Amino acid sequence: MKIRIGKKIIGEGKKTFIVAELSGNHNGSLLEAKKLIRYAKIAGADAVKLQTYKADTITLKSNKKDFRISKYSPWKKYKNFWNLYRKASTPWSWHKELFRVARKNKIEIFSSPFDESAVDFLEKLNCPAYKIASPEINHIPLLEKVAKTGKPIILSLGLADYYDLKLAIQTLRKNRCKKIAVLQCVTSYPAPLSEQNLQTINDIKKMGVLSGLSDHTIGNTSAITSVALGGSIVEKHFNLIKNVKTVDSFFSANLKSFRKLVRSIREAEKAKGVSSYKITSSAKKHLIGKRSIYISDNIQRGEKFSIKNIKIVRPNLGAHPKFFNKIIGKKSKYNLMAGTPFKIKYLK
């Protein structure tokens, strides 16, 4: 199987498609974001990837317990999810310019949309492919939306077990998406080498999709090993050489010396692991980052559920998003406050 992203063909017999994930490393500066793209090209990346979301499209503006960041999180200073995502997001007003800069520098550019409105926005920019971030793999309406664009879709594991992966691939194929890649991933920052389980890369290919790695480790060992095991794509967070402190700089990659590269090769055995779809122990604490259904506006008993009063958001404490369309139009059994995780028992 082969897929095309821009002018790059990815698959067996082709060069590994190396993606520089920009995430929030622009630190709120458009100038810095453009520099990141130019440096990614100089570093040898085949593509840069953005993240397209707004704080309001990824969570609720709430300081309730459900929405507070754990005191053990590396992002604890932001207090709640909304503050973090507002800080880390790439303004939508920048996207057109960033796409222009990437194309001028002859480096591919695409993005991870985090809700359906982001897909509509990116389609206007002729985004050549879409990446579904690990916490979004259970966002079924989003998967249906990106599949219908006809573009290649890259899925990231990390917070996905085998059921999540099967459901995601079935959803994409049901909606006529045939070009799919799945990246092994550990959603922990930074991720430990001992949990990489890179042999999963070969197992993924048995599903009739391309495979690769979304790498959150420090160093090059995992990325190099993934290629040796047959991965076609490597994605890694990228920051500038000066290592300006940003929301993701503590685990993002800079240019590496040859000595570090050699050291990474010597450490390759540690990353070999086993084939596994289990969510790792260090990632489990981040399961709350998956989407679920929440009450987004106060609801009176007997009032119908609608897109105006329920929403698929983070965290993962409400009902599974697959129930969303079935809930619409049903009546509420109780008075419910905004910010309450939806439960099936609330249906009248």
Secondary structure blueprint with pairings:
Layout: E1 2-5, E2 8-11, E3 17-21, H1 30-43, E4 47-52, H2 55-58, H3 81-88, H4 92-104, E5 108-113, H5 116-124, E6 130-132, H6 140-147, E7 153-156, H7 162-174, E8 180-185, H8 200-205, E9 210-215, H9 221-228, E10 233-237, H10 258-266, H11 281-284, E11 292-295, E12 310-313, H12 324-327
Parallel strand pairs: 3-4, 3-10, 4-5, 6-7, 7-8, 8-9, 9-10
Antiparallel strand pairs: 1-2, 11-12
Quick overview of this protein structure:
The chain is of the alpha/beta class. The chain contains 12 helices and 12 strands.
Describe the structure.
- The protein is of the alpha/beta class and 348 residues long.
- The chain folds into 2 domains: 2-54 and 89-288, TIM Barrel; 291-348, Type Iii Antifreeze Protein Isoform Hplc 12, CATH 3.90.1210.
- Helices cover 29% and strands 16% of the residues.
- It contains 12 helices and 12 strands.
- It has helices at 30-43, 55-58, 81-88, 92-104, 116-124, 140-147, 162-174, 200-205, 221-228, 258-266, 281-284, 324-327; strands spanning 2-5, 8-11, 17-21, 47-52, 108-113, 130-132, 153-156, 180-185, 210-215, 233-237, 292-295, 310-313.
- It has an 8-stranded parallel beta sheet with strand order 5-4-3-10-9-8-7-6.
- Strand 6 (130-132), helix 6 and strand 7 form a beta-alpha-beta unit.
- Helix 1 (30-43) packs parallel to helix 4 (92-104), helix 6 (140-147) packs parallel to helix 7 (162-174) and helix 9 packs across helix 10 (258-266).
- 46% of the residues are buried.
- The mean pLDDT is 90.
